[in-house]
Amino acid sequence: MNLERFLSALTKLRRGSTPYGLAPHKPILLLTLLDLLDRGYTHENRFYIDDVLVSTFHENWDLLASDGFVEDFTLPFYHLQNDKIDSAAFWYLKTIPGFQITKHIKSIQTLSELVEYACFSDVIFLMLTHKENRDAVRRVLVNTYFPASAKHYFSANRKQGKYLKEVQQYVLNEVPKVMRLQVAEEEMVYVRNCTFKKMVPKIYQSTCAISGMKVSTINGRFLIDACHIVPFSSTQDDRVSNGIALCPNLHRAFDNGLVSVDQDYRVLVSEHLIEDQSHPYGLSILKGKRIILPEETHLWPSQENLEMHRQERFLR
Question: Which residue, among 75, 89, 67, has the nearest Cα to 29 in the 3D structure?
């Protein structure tokens, strides 16, 4: 395999027909992967379905896709497996052990639950570790599939990550609640939810707000959950003011109404709770304890949301 053969294959990507022309999804996904490599997103041949990947795809879609096409990250992520170089695939999906995917899955949430990561063939990834090769691939993709947008694309600041920054500002209560982010609805929800799951533990310094537990692993992972106070399904609210960082057992107790938080940010424990009172890690001993709160008050759980939890979830 050499660069010239790869570039030639990229000019012949298999694309679906639509009333607006051949679908642009595959070249946009490939350009997205090049951007992530440029930014140092990964130094190994693994691309995870996360907020960074999906938001970067959206940014490139905005730069390149013509009106009429429907943005859908899941389409090229799955179907790029069908493109080949000399009869050999160069894009693979690695599923979670015990699962397999035999057809396109339209739900990005379901896809992310089944796919551990995607990767290039080893030889293609090695080729793309060199910036000059990535630049050559980018030029071929843009000039082949988006010649009318080439000037606009190459003059844009693609390192900025504007969309993801907007999502982060929204989740951190730094923009008005009425803000609407223009992206395919499920992809918008997915990016916001991923950001929520990252930001909530971060602003609580990866510490459970109720127990004070802080446990991490040697590879930098923390065992603290981002818990919605009012279920996302009820309000579509994934700002940090609707979140609290909890360890898994307290997350489950909170969701099931066994604990809550009062107007003074002190722990409430349900009278419905049955437990061994002598156990040193029981829930009853937490009653009346003031929870740990972020340093900045605009990041605190809102009392409006806590009131809804006390009224609708907490078992009195």
Answer: 75
What's this model's pTM, rounded to 2 decimal places? Answer: 0.86
Query: How far apart are alpha carbons 277 and 128 in whole angstroms?
Result: 60
- What does the chain come to in residues? 316
Could you tell me if 268 and 233 are in contact, meaning their C-beta atoms sit under 8 angstroms apart? Answer: no
Give the sign of the dihedral formed by CA 105, CA 108, CA 114, CA 115: positive
**3-state DSSP of the chain:** CCHHHHHHHHCCCCCCEECCEECCHHHHHHHHHHHHHHCCCCCCCCECCCHHHHHHHHHHHHHHCCCCCCCCCHHHHHHHHHCEECCEECEEEEECCCCCCCCCCCCHHHHHHHEEEEEECHHHHHHHCCHHHHHHHHHHHHHHHCHHHHHHHHHCCCCCCHHHHHHHHHHCCCCCCCCCCCCCHHHHHHHHHHHHHHHHHHHCCCCCCCCCCCCECCCCCECCEEEECCCHHHHCCCCHHHEEEECHHHHHHHHCCCEEECCCCEEEECCCCCCCCCCCCCCHHHCCCECCCCCCHHHCCCHHHHHHHHHHCCCC
CA distance 231 to 309: 9
Q: Name beta bridge partners: 254.
A: none
- Tell me phi and psi for residue 62, to 5 degrees: -60, -35
For the chain, what are the domain ranges? Answer: 3-158, 166-312
For residue 219, the model assigns a pLDDT of: 64
Asked whether the beta carbons of 150 and 143 are under 8 A apart, the reply is yes
Per-residue pLDDT of 242-266, as tens digits, reads 999 999 999 999 999 999 999 999 9
The per-residue pLDDT for 149 is 93
Helix 25-38 to helix 51-64 angle, to the nearest 10 degrees?
A: 120
